[in-house]
Write a structure and sequence with these properties.
single chain; about 325 residues; alpha/beta; Aspartate Aminotransferase, domain 1; Aspartate Aminotransferase, domain 2; two-stranded parallel ribbon; globular
Length: about 325
């Protein structure tokens, strides 16, 4: 039997994934489809690339029901900063959930002269104390990976409606995995978490026709990226072009791994179901990793127990994922 390039790629990916077990927040383990569509490309006058980019951006808009999307070469942090600078003005309520909400406040404070804003930074558990205040924007991380916590988006949206505010979401750790991103007016995310792509691309999805003016930077001006004025994430887009054609298969693998993991460790879960994200799980104690060469997740804030992230197992076939497999990876 003649070996094909696809056979060689499958063997390469299998070998690469066997070198380490990822229990981290992103990127995911390697997928053959993440590599098979990568080829020489350019952002202008390359019809094959244009077809791939149109497919990817249309898929992502459909995924969250936003009217418009902008792709950037860079991390989700870049997308968040650009979106904050180009959309948000006035009075802000930022919901405190951990390290990543702190980062949003840091971005806002560094740009306070430009944004001319006032910030209330309120802990998620104290949202009920907010009464009668009006905001222009409510800003939240949907999934806060530093403590493996998911906000109840219905609660956040209800608060935005009562405050007559627009809703801005850091969707980096929730995209593709959680529901109801359409409730937000602006969302930002990257290619390498719940989309299972390689690192390096980020996206701003929104429902606006016009942007705010007054950004003092060429690179942080959203029009620069909206008009393709700088090099885009070409190879990351091609990688997603391969992945998204089999996306539901990959997503179901992660969902099943997470369900099995949470069932095995159901007595050790810290949060109730409404605040339990799909990407990651916080346990009330530390785990022993049983597989060779594990890469545990090291969050940027301290927790009393371990956080295990689940997208590092996206390469596993669905029928191989069960409680027994989970028990072969971890022990308390």
């Amino acid at each position: 039997m003649v070996k094909t390039m696809s056979d060689s790629l499958e063997r390469f990916v299998l070998k690469a994934n066997k070198r380490k077990d990822l229990y981290t927040a992103g990127p995911s383990s390697l997928l053959p489809t993440a590599l098979e569509c990568i080829e020489p490309c350019f952002g202008r006058n390359d019809h094959l690339y244009a077809k791939a980019e149109d497919y990817v951006l249309s898929f992502l808009k459909s995924l969250t029901s936003h009217k418009s999307i902008i792709r950037l070469q860079g991390s989700a942090t870049l997308a968040i900063e650009i979106a904050l600078l180009n959309f948000c003005r006035g009075n802000f309520l930022v919901i405190r959930t951990g390290y990543y909400s702190d980062r949003i406040v840091n971005i806002l404070e560094k740009n306070k002269d430009q944004l001319n804003h006032k910030i209330d930074y309120v802990d998620y558990n104290n949202l009920k104390s907010i009464t009668g205040k009006k905001y222009n924007w409510i800003i939240s991380c949907y999934t806060e990976t530093s403590c493996a916590f998911k906000v109840d988006l219905d609660v956040v949206k209800e608060l935005a409606l009562k405050s007559n505010a627009f809703l801005f979401l850091d969707a980096t750790a929730s995209i593709g995995l959680e529901q109801d991103h359409h409730l937000a007016d602006v969302i930002c995310y990257s290619s390498c978490k719940g989309l299972f792509g390689i690192t390096g691309a980020s996206f701003i999805a929104h429902n606006y026709q016009e942007f705010q003016k007054g950004t003092n930077s060429l690179y942080l001006d959203i029009e620069t990226h909206n008009n393709h004025g700088v090099t885009g994430p070409y190879h990351q887009i091609l990688s997603l072009y391969g992945i998204l054609q089999k996306y539901e298969t990959y997503r179901e693998r992660v969902l099943k791994w997470q369900r099995c993991f949470n069932h095995v460790f159901k007595k050790n879960l810290v949060y109730q179901e409404v605040n339990q994200p799909i990407l990651c799980t916080l346990l009330d104690r530390n785990l022993k990793y049983l597989k060779k060469n594990p890469i545990p997740y090291q969050p940027r804030s301290e927790n009393k127990g371990d956080i295990v992230c689940h997208i590092g197992q996206v390469h596993r076939e669905l029928n191989s994922i069960n409680n027994k497999l989970i028990k072969s990876h971890f022990d308390i």
